[in-house]
Write a structure and sequence with these properties.
five-stranded parallel β-sheet
Length: 123
């Protein structure tokens, strides 16, 4: 099975931009979701190497999603958070929950890809 990367982002343009940027990583399948609940259903089928998530999602938020992912017994995926949240405590909160990196919107999709590649290859 091809290793996978999950993107959870409710904004269509951001989701599509990330999908294009991360699809450039050779050897990985990229799957996109607009809700945390949809991504969690997929996590019952696959063990992704990485998850890229927004924090403000409809229904379950990204903070709860991180917590749910890290409760799973499967190998721990790299977790990258992207957010437009302006609260200065948000990046530290995401990192303290277990995220590996935090990007504020607007962000560079190429930088997200580089960071993800580094995390994947370091694992």
């Amino acid at each position: 099975m091809t290793p996978s990367i999950l993107i959870i982002e409710d904004a269509d343009t951001c989701r599509e931009t990330l999908e294009i940027a991360l699809s450039a990583i050779n050897g990985y399948a990229v799957f996109t979701f607009s809700t945390a609940e949809d991504a969690l259903r997929e996590l019952q089928r696959v063990n992704p190497v990485a998850v890229v998530t927004d924090l403000h999602l409809p229904g379950m938020d990204g903070f709860d999603l991180i917590t749910q992912i890290l409760r799973r017994p499967a190998p721990r995926p790299a977790i990258l958070v992207i957010s437009g949240d302006t609260d200065p405590a948000t990046p530290q909160r995401a990192l303290s929950l277990g995220a590996n990196a935090f990007f504020s919107k607007p962000y560079s999709p190429a930088e997200v890809r580089r960071t993800l590649e580094n995390l994947i290859h370091a694992a």
